[in-house]
């Protein structure tokens, strides 16, 4: 019989359930059947008779797919009744539920005693190979698999009826060192499942069926864990649920399905420091059951910490267009300044618009925005007025009305101008940054050509050493030397290669040794601080004498990092979190945008 891929999938599903459900009760004996010519009465459901021997025997199980032997493990229980030998393979209750028929020749070998279902394979006294067939019904497959069982009589040995329960290695029920506030993002993590009754981790009934790696999603202080079943278990797990308050809620599907591997689901976590109660629904053949467990992200993972929530103000270019045209208005740069200050809020952004000659301004309104006067000051004979626009989208072009009354000598006019305002100078090309606190920094760097256009910015992914070098290089005008000592950067594209050569020659970046730059390693916050500060010094920055170290986790013996961290904090370039720099943590692209934009503003004022 030819076996196709579906047969293999069915066999994988059949045997994978064995670690989820309890093993079937071993057959002691029963009224026998006529098997291989041995006289026996028909099976019944009465209590089994006493065995004449309780022993085990090693065997091999082969089939054309090669899959059965992977999941039906030797040895099996050897049972002798009235001179007839039987081998009982240990098969789980759920796996047995997927076997709809099993025969040696025309003789059924599935037996039921009370509520216990089992397979008993008859063998001769010479233990010659036995051929049989299993008919399977599993998710997505129904068919028959031929097999051959070969027993080894030399391996027969006495066994005890009961085995002590093997307990998994104990693990703490939650991470011993609490996680602090983690920066928004998506991070590859490992996790563990816990027995809800004992509190022990490494709960094999669950962990054996879930892929070891998962994705932690952090969104505005909320935590989610994206997990998936292994390929062999994917078709059996119909649903995941998580306890929310006093009731269970269904986990959201991220991708795939029970029928399409991998099925990735998102589990909302109670916190990063506590266990989350969950359960999964196993459906395999006639087996249908829920399994409770608890889950937690592993302790000690290197996750980027959330930056301090101080208001971040970013300077963006402002463009004033004539109404309905692409041409700049006469007001651009004269009556309305060509730069604005942007601060992220919980609901959007505050944009500070400056009128350098505010004495001519009677009124200022903007469609789709709330406008409020922020300040009014006399500067060099002019009245400088600043208005704050509260907007929810910086990528829009806003229509505004400016009411002017100009009086200069004998010249005067009164006019209301309709104009269009654009902040950043270019339409935001990224579809995943709109609600970020560092939106302004990202748009500013994009408008300067430092970030290139793409559908997504991927703010929560980490930054590599070569990527950060490339961003720095695009912001500078450096000579590129012909050669470099690094031997591990030859596969990078020409621009990245030039960036590393130029910055290394300028003294801004170093390798891990003379020949190795490690371009694809994640850049740490400590490495970022050192690179930025070296650049500031190269460009003429003089360190502030009163800058103090605000971070408690900077190693005292790292003099360069101590100096860089103190100065960058004083300049507002790197603010840290809860009094810590988290020097070994990776830098996300969102954080990189903030740090780089702040640094370039400082450089622009040197």
TrEMBL record:
Pfam families membership: NEAT (PF05031), SLH (PF00395)
Basic and acidic residues bias locations: 155-173
Cellular-component GO terms for this entry: cell envelope
Keywords from the UniProt entry: Signal
Statement: the UniProt record of this protein carries the keyword Disulfide bond: no
Region Disordered: start-end pairs: 155-180
Domain NEAT: 182-313, 309-431
Localization: Cell envelope
Keyword Signal found: yes
InterPro entries for the chain: Cell_Envelope_Struct_Comp (IPR051465), NEAT_dom (IPR006635), NEAT_dom_sf (IPR037250), SLH_dom (IPR001119)
CDD domains: NEAT
Segment forming the signal sequence: 1-29
All residue ranges annotated as the SLH domain in the record: 483-546, 547-606
SUPFAM superfamilies xrefs: NEAT domain-like
Protein's UniProt name: S-layer protein
Gene source species: Lysinibacillus odysseyi 34hs-1 = NBRC 100172
